C-alpha cells in the first residue's frame, strides 16, 4: 500500500483506481480492526493517510464523472 498524490491518481486508468480503492478500503478495515480489538497499530498515522488517499481517489472519480456529463 502506498500513498498517492493527485498527479499519480489522475494518471491511473479507471480500473487501476478501482483496484487501489478496494485495496485501501481493506487496509483501512484491518487497521480499524486492530484498534477495535484493543491492539496498538504499528503506525498510528497510517489510518489518516489511508483515509486521505481514499478521499483523493473518490474526488478524482467525481471530477471525471462531472466532466463526462
Brief synopsis:
By secondary structure, this protein is an all-alpha fold. It has helices at residues 6-11, 14-36, 46-68.
Task: Walk me through this protein's architecture.
The termini are far apart. The chain has a single domain (6-68), classed as Helix Hairpins. With 69 residues, the protein is mainly alpha-helical. The longest helix is centred in the middle third of the chain and has 23 residues, at 14-36. It is 75% helix and 0% strand. It has 3 helices and no strands. The model has no long low-confidence stretch (mean pLDDT 92).
The largest pleated sheet is described as:
none
Give the percentage of residues in beta strands. under 5%
CATH class: Mainly Alpha
In angstroms, what separates the terminal alpha carbons?
32 Å
Low-confidence region ranges: none
Number of domains: 1
Give me the count of strands: 0
Amino acid at each position: 500500500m502506498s500513498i498517492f498524490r493527485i498527479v499519480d491518481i489522475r494518471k491511473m486508468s479507471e480500473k487501476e483506481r478501482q483496484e487501489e480503492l478496494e485495496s485501501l478500503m481493506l487496509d483501512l478495515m484491518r487497521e480499524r480492526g486492530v484498534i477495535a480489538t484493543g491492539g496498538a497499530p504499528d503506525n498510528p498515522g497510517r489510518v489518516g493517510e489511508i483515509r486521505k488517499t481514499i478521499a483523493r481517489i473518490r474526488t478524482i472519480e467525481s471530477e471525471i464523472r462531472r466532466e463526462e456529463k
